[in-house]
């Protein structure tokens, strides 16, 4: 069965506002002022909690802050879990495109570097969890993207054929994951980096979800 696996943050949903709020809450809990700005720091937010904390400490002039990041990360996760869908929205047309794929007999799933429990909670809160046959998170396996194992597990759990699958994402991590798995990569061009993601040499750019059907039809048969 053909299969399309989606990244979550920055691909299916704009989670940047809630992620940035959680990072600032963690910084405040550690006695610092908020450092991240919605809109300006969205690209960092989509690279994960540790990336946001590292940027925050750099702006505070704290270098070599690995221990500080380790201390702040669980605080960030707790803050994020408590307000996971305050600002988050699905990208326009995303779920309509997912529904079209399913009607066309394409298996769909999610492979994210968000912890699985948080990903499950978010997709349930957004009312769309049942639209995806699989959901593999950062802690589902001992490894995470860009290791190909989580992607391949997402394909397997969705009932898909890895040889007839592709990954839709928004970052270099997704590009590297697809390359490691030997599958096509589609990168969205509506994120913070816009068409700049074309520099990562994906097999296709997705300008809007209305175009997904034709891209899938071209890349996997």
From TrEMBL:
Gene Ontology CC entries for this record: cytosol
InterPro entries, per database record: HAD-like_hydrolase_sf, HAD-like_sf, HAD-SF_hydro_IA, HAD_sf, PGP-like_dom2
Pfam family, one: Hydrolase
First-level EC class: hydrolase
Pathway the protein takes part in: Organic acid metabolism; glycolate biosynthesis; glycolate from 2-phosphoglycolate: step 1/1
GO molecular function, one term: phosphoglycolate phosphatase activity
UniProt superkingdom: Bacteria
Biological processes per GO annotation: DNA repair
Keywords: Hydrolase
EC code: 3.1.3.18
Family from the record: Belongs to the HAD-like hydrolase superfamily. CbbY/CbbZ/Gph/YieH family.
Protein name: phosphoglycolate phosphatase
Origin species: Rhodophyticola porphyridii
């Amino acid at each position: 069965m053909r299969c399309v696996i989606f990244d979550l943050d920055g691909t299916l949903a704009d989670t940047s506002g809630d992620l940035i709020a959680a990072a600032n809450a963690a910084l405040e809990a550690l006695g610092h002022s908020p450092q991240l700005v919605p809109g300006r720091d969205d690209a960092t937010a989509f690279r994960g909690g540790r990336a946001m904390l590292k940027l925050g400490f750099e702006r505070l002039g704290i270098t070599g802050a690995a221990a500080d990041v380790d201390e702040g990360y669980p605080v960030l996760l707790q803050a994020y879990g408590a307000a996971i869908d305050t600002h988050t929205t699905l990208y326009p047309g995303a779920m309509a495109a997912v529904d079209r794929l399913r009607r066309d007999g394409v298996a769909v799933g999610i492979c994210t570097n968000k912890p699985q429990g948080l990903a499950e909670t978010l997709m349930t809160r957004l009312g769309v969890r049942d639209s995806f046959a699989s959901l593999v998170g950062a802690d589902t396996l001992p490894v995470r993207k860009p290791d190909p194992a989580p992607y391949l597990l997402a394909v397997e759990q969705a009932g898909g054929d890895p040889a007839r699958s592709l990954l839709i994402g928004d970052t270099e991590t997704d590009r590297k994951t697809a390359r490691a798995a030997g599958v096509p990569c589609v990168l969205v061009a509506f994120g913070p980096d816009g068409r700049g993601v074309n520099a990562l040499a994906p097999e296709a750019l997705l300008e809007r979800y209305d175009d997904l059907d034709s891209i899938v039809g071209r890349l996997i048969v």
